[in-house]
């Protein structure tokens, strides 16, 4: 796995933190210095933390599990959607639905409702509805698509959460903590890293900064997915080889069994003649 490029993070502005008066003291280990009243993040530590998070994400993807990307900031919505879609992972870029993780079965029911509406559209049932009913159903479908369309394929709880701005998405972080789901988070100098399993100290406001970090993490996930495909291909090839060997061995076994049967049949008459010869021997005396 390629190491994160320090210069790319620098050019993307990942080192710019918040104003000094807004800082969270828990972020002190990740702050390099302060300039013009603004904290500067230590990018050497950012590089190290991105590599740690990327390795964890790669392992999750290699196991065939899902990572849920969360970021509802206006300036980062598009880039999160683009990167998550490129690796076929679920994401939330609109309002976080409360209880999405802790009350997951209810969320799945809402997703199922959306698929049921789609079925009604295709089987011609909509033709029997009035204009008012049709408008209501269409609006409901649009609302569900906006909030839940990006997680429609997520049939079970994700194995990890990737959060952009852990302070803004604190409800998502709390739900993940409650369920023991690991959280990878881009944490700025005004946020608390306490409940984040993999802290990535960086600017979480700038689109370029978020994109640079997502590029590294999504590349690791894509690598994990490819390794999983390669492992499955090797397993299938091994199974095919084993089956071919078994097919080849079976005729040999059949031939061996026939030979053994023939030898037994030939030996049987000889065994019958031997007692007869023994019986005749005393009579000759």
Write the layout of secondary structure elements.
Elements lengths: L5 H7 L3 E4 L11 E5 L2 E4 L1 H20 L4 E4 L6 H10 L4 E2 L11 H19 L8 H18 L11 E5 L5 H10 L3 E5 L10 E4 L5 H78 L1
Parallel strand pairs: 4-5, 4-6, 6-7, 7-8
Antiparallel strand pairs: 1-3, 2-3
Helix pairs in contact: 2-7, 3-7, 4-5
Largest β sheet strand count, sense and barrel closure:
5 strands, parallel
Structural class: alpha/beta
Strand ordering within the main sheet: 5-4-6-7-8
Helical content stands at 55-70%
Quantity of strands, as a count: 8
Separation of the first and last Cα atoms:
95 Å
Order of helices and strands: HEEEHEHEHHEHEEH
- The chain-level mean pLDDT equals 87
Describe this structure as you would to a colleague.
This protein is an alpha/beta fold and 285 residues long. It is 57% helix and 12% strand. The chain contains 7 helices and 8 strands. The strands form 2 sheets. It has a 5-stranded parallel sheet with strand order 5-4-6-7-8, sandwiched between helices. Helix 6 links the parallel strand 6 and strand 7. Helix 3 runs parallel beside helix 7. It is flat, with a radius of gyration of 33 Å. The C terminus is likely disordered.
């Amino acid at each position: 796995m390629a190491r994160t490029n320090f210069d790319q993070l620098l050019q993307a502005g990942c080192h710019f933190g918040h104003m000094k008066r807004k800082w969270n003291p828990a972020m002190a280990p990740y702050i390099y210095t302060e300039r013009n009243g603004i904290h500067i993040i230590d990018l050497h530590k950012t590089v190290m933390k991105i590599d740690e998070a990327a390795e964890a994400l790669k392992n999750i993807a290699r196991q065939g599990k899902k990572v849920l990307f969360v970021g509802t900031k206006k300036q980062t919505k598009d880039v999160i959607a683009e990167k998550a879609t490129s690796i076929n992972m679920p994401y939330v870029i609109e309002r976080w639905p409360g209880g999405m993780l802790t009350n997951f079965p209810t969320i799945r029911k809402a997703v199922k409702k959306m698929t049921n509406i789609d079925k009604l559209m295709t089987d011609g049932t909509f033709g029997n509805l009035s204009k008012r009913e049709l408008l209501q159903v269409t609006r409901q479908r649009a609302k569900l698509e906006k909030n839940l369309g990006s997680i429609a394929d997520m049939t079970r709880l994700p194995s990890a959460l990737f959060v952009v701005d852990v302070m803004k998405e604190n409800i998502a972080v709390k739900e993940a903590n409650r369920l023991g789901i690991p959280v990878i988070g881009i944490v700025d100098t005004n946020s608390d890293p306490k409940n984040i399993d993999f802290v990535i100290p960086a600017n979480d406001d700038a689109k370029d900064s978020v994109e640079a970090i997502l590029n590294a993490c999504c590349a690791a996930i894509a690598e994990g997915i490819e390794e999983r495909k390669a492992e499955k291909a090797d397993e299938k090839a091994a199974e095919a080889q084993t089956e071919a060997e078994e097919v080849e061995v079976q005729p040999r076994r059949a031939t061996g069994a026939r030979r053994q049967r023939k030898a037994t049949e030939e030996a049987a008459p000889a065994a019958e003649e031997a007692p007869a010869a023994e019986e005749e021997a005393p009579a000759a005396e």
